[in-house]
Fold this sequence. Notes:
The complex is a heterodimer.
Chain A: E1 3-7, E2 11-12, E3 18-25, E4 33-39, E5 45-51, E6 60-62, E7 70-75, E8 80-85, E9 94-101, E10 115-119
Parallel strand pairs in A: 2-10
Antiparallel strand pairs in A: 1-3, 3-8, 4-5, 4-9, 5-6, 7-8, 9-10
Chain B: E1 9-12, E2 18-23, E3 33-37, E4 44-47, E5 61-66, E6 69-74, E7 83-91, E8 94-97, E9 101-105
Parallel strand pairs in B: 1-9
Antiparallel strand pairs in B: 2-6, 3-4, 3-7, 5-6, 7-8, 7-9
Amino acid sequence: EVQLVESGGALVQPGRSLRLSCAASGFTFSSAWMNWVRQAPGKGLEWVGRIRSKTDGGTADYGAPVKGRFTISRDDSKNMLYLQMNSLKSEDTAVYYCTTLDSDYGSLDYWGQGTLVTVSS
Amino acid sequence: SYELTQPPSVSVSPGQTATITCSGDELGDKYACWFQQKPGQSPVLVIHQNGNRPSGIPERFSGSNSGNTATLTISGTQPMDEANYYCQAWDRSTAIFGGGTKLTVL
């Protein structure tokens, strides 16, 4: 059974940094492309970014609102996905979801339960 | 930038067919997915590759995609189908989500 468990969400002041983690199990993590999606309170879904498998280059792409501030990384030895968030803004307040990503068809097949990040002074 | 447009709300009576649309420029040239999200829960993939159902998704959920519109159809809608539904597609290397449609079953 695929499991994705996010952690690291917290209340943080504007301008500060935070790192989210996603523990993956139930599939071959090293072969998987992975994704982060966020959802502001009462709002819709917004794509944060994705990271390819090491076999496919291991590079990441980001959505415009977070490009240059957020960095996605992975540790295949630990089956862990990370989201490093710097220069946080109030508009980054959201539940952050880790998802798997089908590299052939682009579907976000499995989602974690999410972790809440609140950016406020 | 690429946009996907959904109606904010759709209402349907139990047992009837619900249709939710998602519009985008030449969307039919892309793969569309649909997600169901109930209050307090994570989104669940209900349709991928325009019209394929993941395992465990009831047969009453179907999808199509042509021209500028992708469509999610729920046949014989049940009260448990009441939820927010989001369409999604990729434009170049960016995932785009529609704004979401609240489906009310009454």
